[in-house]
Amino acid sequence: MKVHLSRFVCMDVASNLERMAQEGAAAAAAGADLCVFPESFLHGYRRQLDPALARERFRALSGDCPETAFLFGSFTEERRNRLTLWQGGEEKARYDKVHLFRPNAEQDLWDPGDRYAAARLKGWTLGLLNCNDLRFPEQARALRLQARCDVLVAPAWWPWRRDHVWRALLQARAIENAVFTVGCCVSASEHPLETFAGAGNHVFDPLGDPVRTPDDHTYLLDPKVRDAVLVDPLETYLDIKRVDVF
Question: CA–CA separation, 152 vs 143, rounded Å?
Answer without folding.
Answer: 8
